[in-house]
């Protein structure tokens, strides 16, 4: 059908008689047209004053006889009818066997009219023909694949309307000189009918797409009203084309704006429909809006825009390609910020055209000056507005930059690969839901029309399903798939390298532990048996320290609950030897007790507790030693309290012991403090995060100490050691 329709338009254009001329319009509407004439090896534009035949018939020509769109050149019906009458008279002259061209000073040349050839058809004809056929093809295809959808039916009607409008305009707007008056009138009526059908049918589309707005059957009513207006215009029941054609079309455009706002309010919570509707709105309002701005609005202001109509039809290609995707519900995921950029650009261009027209029509400013002023004003306003909107819409993009997110993941060494990967995806895509998949999908893919992103398992990373990106504000896109595929490949390699490094460190710790046990341990035992009794306590302490180090290195870590049991046994033995009563308090259950401590962390904690207990036993005469462990607010808090203190904490001097305590606490990312709950007693407290992030000694750890604790000054730590 589209091929037959195109062939009909082409055959009608080729059937018209042609003189093989390239005519041009003079600057003055009433002046004769211009024709190129060869002169001294070149060509000049000569005045074509009229045409004549051998029978003595002759007719003067005017430049407005070449008007490509008569309803913009002659908006009043009286002038339009006079134009058609002249067209008929000129066409009658062209039926003669020979036609003589007359200039201002006599005959120029005599030509024999012949049917028009393909190479004589200008590019404007082919453009309008392509647009008309595209309307039929796209509208027909959408209707074929969605025959039960009312929106698709009305969309197919818009294709018919575009064919009638652009196809008829392709013939009469690119004529060489004239058409028969009745043929011209019929083609122009078809153009108006197609315009009205397009406008009414598209308003009906928005009544049904993407959701049906009302139960009333308003679609047929809208189409019928616009068809009746077209018939009224053909019957010339109004005073001119402005009232009969352009005003109803502009009102229809405003109606579609209201319907679009209504539809947007209905679908803004549905991500899939909203994505398709965004493309739908962009294609429709950009294409039709610019066409109205370039052709209809200037015509209402009294400007002849007939020459701009043919190239402006190219905007309808944008409408049909975009709207076809929207109605057929293709996966329109790559919108987002691109959609915002396109809208800002289109609004800026439209504002430039509107301001330029206003300066020319209202203030009667010269065209060149008006364009300069418009560019200056729009440029001045556009750049700051664009930057402001861009910051508002992309303010969190830097936080979710893939490289920055991956850097945060690598620096968070305390987390396992699976947890770190999940946190990375949360920071990058901010999904409302994330769950593990079993079995793993074969590849990265989108599902549920972009609501879901599925990731396969890779090395140490589990298979995951992410749903509702950016807290449900957008769909996942193919760009997201590419990003996460690259990121997962890099993260998998990083985690594999980290795992290999961890295994290497574990093997090295085991080797060091064996060497210390076999070599240093044996020598200390020998020295213990040979040394006098006065040196044996120090040797036993050195031997205990070595055993502690070897156990921590060789054990590969332990849970907090297991470590508390070992520490209690050691402190209990030391208190028995010193004849001090031990009061030990620890939580019996809780999620923190299952926390696995790395060997280095375990060693820090055990030596920290040992140093606190040693301070109490060595430098005071306690009768009771109270050790308390608590888990609260994601932190481990433990304190060592003793009586028999001879000097309050404020009088202590900094020594190696307290410096060592502060070093270990800060290494574990915690805080140490000291207070005097009762006269003669001291309580030393350490607060450590359950998931410590090691920091360099000398930097401040997290502030988690209770308000009643007094931090020991770094340079005034009073320690008996």
From TrEMBL:
SMART domains documented for this protein: HATPase_c (SM00387)
A biological process term (GO) from this entry: phosphorelay signal transduction system
Keywords of the record: Kinase, Membrane, Signal, Transferase, Transmembrane, Transmembrane helix, Two-component regulatory system
Ranges where the record places region Disordered: 692-721
Signal peptide start and end residues: 1-20
Pfam family, one: HATPase_c
Keyword Transmembrane included in the entry's annotation: yes
GO molecular function, one term: kinase activity
Domain Histidine kinase/HSP90-like ATPase as annotated: residue spans: 600-692
Keyword Transmembrane helix included in the entry's annotation: yes
InterPro entries the UniProt entry points to: HATPase_C_sf, HATPase_dom, Sensor_HK_TwoCompSys
Membrane-spanning intervals of the chain: 125-145, 154-174, 186-209, 221-238, 244-265, 277-301, 313-330, 342-363, 369-390
Protein name per the record: Histidine kinase/HSP90-like ATPase domain-containing protein
Record lineage: Bacteria, Pseudomonadati, Pseudomonadota, Gammaproteobacteria, Nevskiales
